[in-house]
From TrEMBL:
This is Ribonuclease P protein component. Coiled coil: none annotated. PROSITE patterns: RIBONUCLEASE_P. Transmembrane segments: none annotated. The gene is rnpA. It comes from Microbispora corallina. Keywords: Endonuclease, Hydrolase, Nuclease, RNA-binding, tRNA processing. RNaseP catalyzes the removal of the 5'-leader sequence from pre-tRNA to produce the mature 5'-terminus. It can also cleave other RNA substrates such as 4.5S RNA. The protein component plays an auxiliary but essential role in vivo by binding to the 5'-leader sequence and broadening the substrate specificity of the ribozyme. Consists of a catalytic RNA component (M1 or rnpB) and a protein subunit. HAMAP family: RNase_P. SUPFAM superfamilies: Ribosomal protein S5 domain 2-like (SSF54211). The keyword Cell membrane does not apply. The keyword tRNA processing applies.
Amino acid sequence: MLPSASRMRRGYEFADAIRRGRRAGRPTLVAHLNVREADEPPLVGFVVSKAVGGAVVRNQVKRRLRHLMRSRVEALPRGSLLVVRANPPAASARSEHLAAELDVALDRLLRRRGSGSRTPTDGRS
């Protein structure tokens, strides 16, 4: 499982990651990443709504996502907040498919972060 020190628990951390972070969507999940200027270990939180299924299904999806993030948390920059939101197809997705979707989303978020800041294109020279 994901180490306890890496789990996000406070509501403001979830809100910060979702509102201020970058987003990468996939059919089975959506990932939000906000990298803060803090020298703390990365925190990961999970959101699985009732649209995914009943309580048993939601808990299974959360456990599968926590297990997948265990080996991927080291790839996140220090001080980052990551929220993984499961979409309804996550309930029936095979673990290999869920892992591939998570890898694609994380790769997109981390690659965007490394590409530098974008300059606004407003038509002025």
